[in-house]
Amino acid sequence: MRFKQLLFIGTLLGLGFTSCNKDDDDGGGTTVPERDRGEQAIEDDEALQEYLSTHFYNYEEFETPPENFDYRIAIDTIAGENEDKIALLDSDALMEKEVTDDSVSYTLYILKVREGGGRKPTFADSTLVGYKGQLLNDNVFDQSLVVPLWFDFPGTITTNNRGQLVRVGYVEARGFIHGLTEFGEATNYTINPDNTVNWENYGIGAIFMPSGLGYFSSAQSGIPAYSPLIFEINLYRAVEADHDRDGIPSWKEDLDEDENLFNDDTDQNRYPNYFDTDDDGDGTPTRREITILQDGTVEFPDKNNDGTPDYLDPDIFQE
């Protein structure tokens, strides 16, 4: 899984829709239009369904775990001695999730081998995940199953040497996020004498995503452009993030509930609310304009009863 860095000023800027390709005949530059996202979504879904109908996972080992079973998913082709195996597409553990992104509807396939008994992450959280990423031809492009890694879904914001705001450390493959939110973290863990960790009842599964929820036209190391992706995942931790530490969980700073934190900037200061300690820009920190109860619940006072909570109302502030 690769973290990305993207410049934006005001609102988030998208990647360009064209790329240049050298014309060997005349030595000039030729503009190659990006593929239509809707058409590519249909093509990717056909490829994913073909894969899911011709492959199976080691469901029998999960049903009757052998001694020293590592509880990892193994996917293989239905052929030869495996001809009688149940295809992924027909598995009771496979679910479909419809996701709309860039006005295109995608089908995300999620193999939920074990849901996990703990808290499920939101789209704005941080997660500790063991994973393996591969293509439909089974080529592995990235993995860290033995040593899980932390993923901060929306990433953070900093300023570069040109004074531009930069989003760093975020997960670009949206299908990875949409898939992980269907799993729960471990319910408990123990630390062994050698400092390894035994996790209990953590989420185990796989995510099968079209390229539109992956890297689409942006080729990565080991990932050609327009590649559907498969991620085997083990979800160990899901931490509710508060990126600006203003007392409001980051997912609650998504005011229009579109799961895009970057178009919620109440004071229009270029910093989205999830990374702004004074959301309405009135000089009073957000943390002083909300109420955090003993149980951690957040309440939003509205002193003038105008329907806008104080922390978003620049007309209500403390001297």
UniProtKB/TrEMBL annotation:
Residues 124-239 form the PPIase FKBP-type domain. It catalyses: [protein]-peptidylproline (omega=180) = [protein]-peptidylproline (omega=0). The keyword ATP-binding does not apply. Its EC number is 5.2.1.8. Residues 254-266 have a biased composition (Acidic residues). The keyword Disulfide bond does not apply. Keywords: Isomerase, Rotamase. Residues 249-319 are annotated as: Disordered. This is peptidylprolyl isomerase. Gene3D superfamilies: 3.10.50.40. It is an enzyme of class 5 (isomerase).
